[in-house]
Specification:
Four copies of one chain form a homotetramer.
Chain A: E1 2-5, H1 11-23, E2 26-32, E3 37-43, H2 53-57, E4 61-65, E5 85-87, E6 90-92, E7 98-102, H3 109-122, E8 126-128, H4 146-159, E9 163-166, H5 173-179, E10 182-185, H6 193-199, E11 206-209, H7 216-229, E12 234-238, H8 254-263, E13 268-270, H9 272-276, H10 282-292, E14 296-300, H11 318-331
Parallel strand pairs in A: 7-8, 7-14, 8-9, 9-10, 10-11, 11-12, 12-13, 13-14
Antiparallel strand pairs in A: 1-3, 1-4, 2-3, 5-6
């Protein structure tokens, strides 16, 4: 159940609603939009509370909405205006296309700094890089771990870019938060519920990748774990789904991005690198992501892709990336560089 | 095996190569590009000819390429410059984005004329409409048949637009050719090989839709049936593939469009109406199709979508379509309206 | 709408119902079960007739069932007892597991006779073999055509087995009927509606393969085209669906066979050869098909699989087949060899 | 690289090989088969060691096999004889079909005991039940947690059955080990690599479910994480893959079970309950699993399925289960009840 406070409801009036809900044994989660505030109530047994209407009638409440979608806090039914997630000053979901770029894996200080400087010069907004790497085979390179995190933090400091990196385990949440500005949940962990519950309790923004075989509904329900835990700073990332087609690594669901933006108020970005796995089609896919209404793109860049320890075939060179940035910034009138 | 003639090879020199190939028992298919001509040789048993190199060495031949891809005539290995397919003066595959629009099914003279006039006024290039309709259920509306073809031809004449419509059966090829300018092979017929073989023998341009579960390789091999038969006027149409995701009707494989354009010289258009089945996301998907490099889009338009006999939920109104056209024409700098 | 005649309704009473339905402008299709007869009424516009209840109340009618499933004549709602399809004395759908076996393609008189004699000796019920072959590439072996049909008919005559073979086109229906006892609709033609409509008008039994990306509902609706046309002798064949898994050629949907048998009264067989594409797992898959309740299996057998012109890797040798037959006949108590 | 020790190689000879490998900086993992022992060597950088042949030539070594499959320790290349995994006296992978049964979720002491007694009486081998439940929605019942574990342990003690239950997180491994005999990795955690690495270090047997969109190769590589960590007691469980078909919950890949048994020496069981999600087809699917060569089945049983807190539609009643057990035990001659 969602309680939509009237416009202009005071903090005291909001607190009163929360207290009453909690007094009845429900969990209450407050979401503050640009215009209106909403309070969600969920009972301990997962069912929506009943019979609260009269209790709440006395407060400064505009409407009470019973749940229609299985995802609730993520739904646009609850919040009409779009969420903008701030990452150390970068605003994701506003009028400007956000570009996250960097190497798939942090391999060395030198490799990372070359890429970080190149993507900064080309106009990227956020630096990405993997320190903890989920790998299908136990015999593949598993990432530099904490050493990689430290290199990322240093590169972020030098370039002034916020840093996003993957966290694979509840036990790593604290150390990843210490060295980065945004926590990425990888596609294979989209339904790692203990991890989602833990990240619902942190204040850091979370980038939630869609699982390769997750439906849009499951993806939004995974986001719901974060929101229901109390973390409203969630950005979704489409990175390709698994289908019968093998010509590219995955099938990038761009029309699905348009659809998910109808269903949720959360920002949605696109990762054409993992989705296609093929350098030559990444620029076209990134342009299409911008055209379909994505709030940003995430791109892998490597100084020497042919020598990368992971996913070389899908990394752009620094030069490719600079060209693509010119294209993206000039291309898409909807999200200008200085909005 | 592909024999690439030298630039400036004369008709006599080309004919000589063809005669020698045929004299050895092979089928020879000539493709004339803007710059160079190629001759493909295929043996009656499906194997490439061997030992012809010396025979051909005397002609004005630049190179001989053994087959690497299972699709041959469709491959960019064979033909570097892009094919432009002309449909009664409209050029598909050139610098201008081609827009095909019209109702899913021709339902009546009045319905068709309203749509035809509206899409003409909004700047569409080709009129589409279904007379023979493949329907999953035998109890659904199956189209007006020849009566629908006549209405289409009349609407094309009045508006000056060329007409594209589906042909479902070898037996209908002649009548569909009589009343239309381009023959569409529907997604469910993509591997109807007798139909493909028949259409390889006609001169009319063919629009070949991708099967909902066809790989890119299978799609190009279906085109190969047409090309090997002798019909070089083939346009491909991506219309969504079948995946586990049910939020939209199909999953539109836009990155796949970028990939297929690397593999083939044939033009590729996109049908966001069938791909998504949801009016609200069609404009975004059409913009993304243009951005990813498609040569055109095909859109369903109905004067009253809620009363359509087929696929109403995916039809744009005439007003929606006019707005989208403005967007598409101004949007995409790569394919301008007057190129 | 389905009119279920009372047990013991006479031919006159049935004819009366048909006449009344047709008099109201509906198409009436009569299905005769072992115990009861049903008459389906479909309006010319695809809608079920309304207001007929009073008209029919006077006849010897047990119940009138409005349509709930999109497939109607194929539904078990209409007919509780299972359909048994006879193919020249072989009964498919009864207590005995039916085994169809033979080469993928008819390649020569000698090859076919070796296989036909071997499978007869091992206890097969029906001889299969392809004369018209749908091939993904135009450059692959396309079958011997009518010459292959004649060889099949001769092999059937010699061994006494009925013959099943694929028909790919409306134009070939007559010639295929002349030389065979059961017509196969291949997976890629499952939604070739003109072909289905044509086969609805013949008396020969039809084996309808499931399309590699067809849902169970779509498969039953394709069967509905045959039944609504008037041909009640339809056998379904599961042959694997297309999924992301590439370890085997397709994914054999055996639990789906159990489900489709709940939904329809038609017999269902399984083709483990095409489904898996891998000789070594075919016996296990055939046993599982019997265990899950399939009414039969279809198996490819070749005297020298490594020299087959098509699909060699999925063909059993004659010896493999004989061993599997012993296993199948002794294995499955539910369908004994002499039932 | 795999070093296959000669039959009869002594413990000293094995230790010598291990020491030499480790002395060169490699990790050495010893696998003891019924007949032969193998030692795998993996370099710290994930590459196989080179130049060791001469070093090892002096030992009692039969063969040295370079890696061909990406999964190594799980491969039948390494180990021809099948692994049998013991769970408190129950042997999985031997001649007898293992049956695991119990409720989806542990809901109460009473519910669990009713089921535990019923499945014991019917002849089940292992008691299953969920205490930590992965749920798509944060608002669904999440399981009783440690309280559920205690109830499971008590029910196991009363009935004498070993207990298997899911562990969702590295942090829960110890407590789940304390109260159960076999640890289940759920489908959504199949690529939770920190969890796999942790479970590679325990001695308890692990039941590794296939992810709903995992290829067979990825599944075996997930098992490889466990084996490479040192835990050889791994049982695989097929539970349906995600496809376009929605008639059943998932598509049960039974032919894939036959294939995976060719690729690995590990036991493979099947879960028809999750795979189909539909009570009526579970018995047929379980019979087919036995027929295809699975080493066991896992079945959900609930005293009152219509009142289950999770997955009621796929639970058998206690009576259904008893009937199915009779069928399974008498049915499958390959795996007899008293082997």
């Amino acid at each position: 159940m969602i309680v939509v406070m009237a416009r202009g409801a005071s903090e005291d009036e909001i607190r009163l609603v929360v207290e009453r809900l909690e007094g009845c044994g429900f969990q209450a989660v407050v979401s503050r939009g640009a215009v209106q505030t909403t309070v969600e109530a969920v009972g301990a047994d997962g069912r929506a509370p009943a019979g609260l209407e009269s209790l709440l009638a006395s407060g400064n409440v505009e409407r009470i909405i019973p749940f229609a979608e299985p995802f609730k806090l993520a739904s646009r039914q609850v919040r009409q205006d779009r969420t903008v997630v701030g990452v150390k000053g970068v605003r994701i979901g506003g009028p400007r296309l956000t570009v996250m770029a960097g190497p798939c894996s942090v391999e060395s200080r030198e490799q990372l700094l070359i890429v970080a400087r190149a993507v900064t010069a080309a106009g990227a907004d956020i630096l990405r890089g993997g320190a903890f790497k989920p790998r299908t085979s136990p015999y593949d390179f598993q990432g530099l771990g904490v050493e990689g995190l430290k290199l990322l933090a240093a590169a972020g400091e030098e370039t002034g870019l916020p840093v996003v990196t993957e966290v694979m385990s509840v036990d790593d949440v604290e150390v990843v938060m210490e060295f980065s500005d945004m926590l990425q949940v990888g596609a294979r962990n989209m339904q790692n519920f203990p991890l989602l519950r833990r990240l619902g309790k942190v204040s850091a923004p979370v980038l939630l990748k869609r699982g390769p075989s997750a439906t849009i509904k499951e993806w939004l329900l995974a986001a719901e774990y974060l929101l229901a835990g109390g973390n409203a700073n969630v950005v979704l990332c489409e990175r390709g789904i698994r289908t019968f087609e093998t010509e590219l690594r995955n099938t990038l669901d761009l029309a699905g991005v348009a659809r998910v933006k109808e269903l949720t108020h959360l920002p949605v970005i696109v990762d054409p690198s993992h989705a296609t796995g093929r350098r030559s089609v990444i620029p076209a896919a990134a342009r299409a992501a911008a055209a379909v209404g994505a709030d940003g793109v995430m791109l892998e860049v490597h100084p020497e892709p042919e020598r990368a320890l992971s996913d070389g075939p899908q990394a752009l060179t620094c030069e490719d990336f600079a060209l693509l940035m010119q294209d993206l910034r000039s291309y898409w009138s909807g999200k200008s560089t200085d909005a």
